[in-house]
Design a protein that fits this description.
This protein is an all-alpha fold. It is built from three helices and no strands. It has one domain.
Length: about 80
């Protein structure tokens, strides 16, 4: 079984985390209580995944965190409007 490239793992973990943080912010401001609770579970998993990846990559993680974060936040803004208006 091949392992996931650590850089790709970091991009995916950061994408998920920032996506969920942005969705969480939009849920809170929009009063979507149920979605806010569910989003918190995903944030817990993504927090741990990011820490594990950064410990392995150290400072080389910065560009990959940026890529995951930038795509995560813009995707969240788009999909939140699409799903919840």
């Amino acid at each position: 079984m091949t392992r996931l490239d650590p850089r790709l793992g970091l991009v995916l973990a950061t994408f998920a985390h920032i996506f969920l943080l942005a969705i969480q912010t939009l849920n809170v401001t929009g009063g979507h209580y149920g979605w806010a609770v569910l989003t918190t579970a995903g944030l817990a998993v993504s927090d741990v995944a990011i820490v594990v990846q950064i410990v392995q990559s150290k400072w080389k993680a910065v560009p990959w965190v940026f890529i995951g974060g930038a795509t995560g936040v813009t995707s969240a803004m788009y999909f939140h409007r699409l799903w919840l208006g």
